[in-house]
């Protein structure tokens, strides 16, 4: 049984349908990338999966349960984690404080969860005492993902994680996502415009254009050019 199963999902804003008849699934320990140009409907699709937008048709099931009508908070509590676009953090707080504000909710497990998160991004140990607002964009993105990892999610949903990030840290983030999948068994749904980052190490990709899947296939370095070509069509 798939961890996440999206069936015939359509959604939009008011009477305007933005995403049409989308279907895909994600297994535990599988990385699915959804690529597309600006305006393709990528973020709108994620909002529907997370419950931030209602489904006009279709269903979303998670961990064997129909969650189509559940609130975002209920979906997050069931094991989803969301890293939104834009390197979200509390800029006036230190890296350590940003992590502990999440970890400390877990009582006796707080330190173990904190340690797991910083092990995924060792640079956060180096900058533990620095205010998050003084970090580079890439370091803030690593912090955002680490905060989500503290919740020990079954499914990680990432929206444009490479936006505004320097290439060397992009590579580190790609490696860390692959590690989440292989070492922790986390399912990943990632939406991106940067095809190489999204396709090179994912398991499967889908190309979204005008709110519909128009192409897709297995991931891998040898599939990057085909994926780029599909986006141009």
Automatic annotation (TrEMBL):
Q: Which GO terms describe its biological process?
A: L-amino acid transport
Alphabetized PANTHER family for the sequence: HIGH-AFFINITY BRANCHED-CHAIN AMINO ACID TRANSPORT ATP-BINDING PROTEIN, HIGH-AFFINITY BRANCHED-CHAIN AMINO ACID TRANSPORT ATP-BINDING PROTEIN LIVF
SMART domains in alphabetical order: AAA
Q: Could you confirm whether the keyword Nucleotide-binding appears in this record?
A: yes
Q: What family does this belong to?
A: Belongs to the ABC transporter superfamily.
The keyword Ribonucleoprotein appears for this protein: no
What is the protein name given in its UniProt record? ABC transporter
Q: Which residues form a coiled coil?
A: none
Q: Output the SUPFAM superfamilies linked to this UniProt entry.
A: P-loop containing nucleoside triphosphate hydrolases
Question: What InterPro entries is this protein classified in?
Answer: AAA+_ATPase (IPR003593), ABC_transporter-like_ATP-bd (IPR003439), BCAA_Transport_ATP-bd_LivF (IPR052156), P-loop_NTPase (IPR027417)
A GO molecular function assigned to this protein is: ATP hydrolysis activity
């Amino acid at each position: 049984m798939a961890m996440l199963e999206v069936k015939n999902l359509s959604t939009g804003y008011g009477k305007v349908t933005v995403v049409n008849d989308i279907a895909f699934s994600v297994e535990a320990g599988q990385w699915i990338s959804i690529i597309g140009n600006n305006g393709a409907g990528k973020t709108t699709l994620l909002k529907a999966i997370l419950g931030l937008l209602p489904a006009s048709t279709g269903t979303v099931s998670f961990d064997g349960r129909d969650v189509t009508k559940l609130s975002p908070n209920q979906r997050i509590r069931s094991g989803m984690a969301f890293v939104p676009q834009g390197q979200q953090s509390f800029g006036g707080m230190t890296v350590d404080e940003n992590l502990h504000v999440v970890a400390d909710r877990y009582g006796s497990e707080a330190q173990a969860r904190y340690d797991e998160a910083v092990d995924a991004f060792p640079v956060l140990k180096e900058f533990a005492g620095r205010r998050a607002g003084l970090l580079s964009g890439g370091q803030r993105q690593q912090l955002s993902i680490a905060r989500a990892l503290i919740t020990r999610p079954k499914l990680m949903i990432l929206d444009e994680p490479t936006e505004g990030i320097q290439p060397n840290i992009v590579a580190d983030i790609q490696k860390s996502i692959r590690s989440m999948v292989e070492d922790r068994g986390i399912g990943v749904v990632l939406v991106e415009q940067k095809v190489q980052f999204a396709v090179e190490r994912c398991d499967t990709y889908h190309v979204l254009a005008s709110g519909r899947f128009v192409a897709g296939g297995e991931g891998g370095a040898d599939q990057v050019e085909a994926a780029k070509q599909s986006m141009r069509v």
